Amino acid sequence: MRYPDRWLRLISYPVLGVFIRLFGDMAPLGDLLKRPLFYADVVWDILIVAASWEANRWLIRYLDQRYSWVTDKFKRFVIQFFTALPMTFLIVIPMIYLWNEVLTDHGGFNTANLLVNDFPLTVVFTTMIHMAYTFLYFYQHHEKTIAQLKARIQELETSVAGVASAKDLNKASGFRELLVVNYGTSSVPVHTNEIAYIYKQNEISFIKTFDNKEYTSSSSLEQLETLLDPVSFFRLNRQFIGNLKAIRQFKSDASGKLTLDIHPAVEEEVTVSKKKAAEFKAWIGRQV
Predict the structure, then answer these.
(1) pLDDT tens string for the chain (288 positions)?
(2) 128, 12 Cβ separation under 8 angstroms
(3) Same-domain check for residues 99 and 184
């Protein structure tokens, strides 16, 4: 996880450094500003803040790679809590000792001062850092999730638009939604989605609908096949064109030929040759 925290760190280091220096000091600010050592104290406190912050930031980014706040909340909290505070104390206490007892001889390094000032400040400081980065973590996770959902929605919209375009293309390509057929001496319009199958007998094309009505057409099966949407209709054999919705089941025999169960029922057996079986299975598999 990359955190947009550059300006936060640049501003927080000096602000917290000054705050830490002034915390617990009862001397008037005017008097402190007259002391040259005050400015050196502020600089050193800024260094303490920077070192502690960077160490905790490194720890947070390290844990981000191993324990997600989304899926491993409890484990992440326990590890981060019991690692962050001891690590911060191991940085702060030696730096305070180095400054007060070695570099400047302040003589201010003592147990009482650690418990009253440095300990609570370190706890509050460390807690604030981790709360800030936890907020940034969830904020970025939320933004990433929203972006992924938008991309998915756009993908679905594109897919739907593609399907609609394909349907429009089918219509533009000449596939009919309505056929004019013969019923006795009359011409009757029949919607293609009402047609169960078309078969040839004695060079005449018979059209059977799902409500078991039968019509004839002067067009050949080859001509009718070019008018029907191949998404719904398939040329099963030389004598038969079937609608997907009319095929109840099919089974293969030892030779690889397919036998179909068609509704409405057909007097003669409807089959698909071994040569065309794979094409039929691919067609029906795409539509089901």
Answers:
(1) 788 888 999 999 999 999 888 887 788 888 888 888 889 989 999 999 999 999 999 999 999 999 999 888 999 999 999 999 999 999 998 998 888 878 886 655 666 677 777 888 889 999 999 999 999 999 988 988 898 888 888 878 776 666 555 555 555 556 888 899 999 888 999 999 999 999 999 889 999 999 999 999 999 999 999 999 999 999 999 999 999 999 999 998 888 899 999 999 988 899 999 999 999 999 988 755
(2) no
(3) no
pTM beyond 0.85: no
Task: Return phi, psi of residue 140, to 5°.
Answer: -70, -35
Number of domains composing the chain: 2
**Residue range(s) defining the domain that contains residue 260:** 178-287
Please give the C-alpha separations between residue 157 and each of 16, 162, 165, 168, in angstroms, as whole numbers: 50, 8, 12, 16
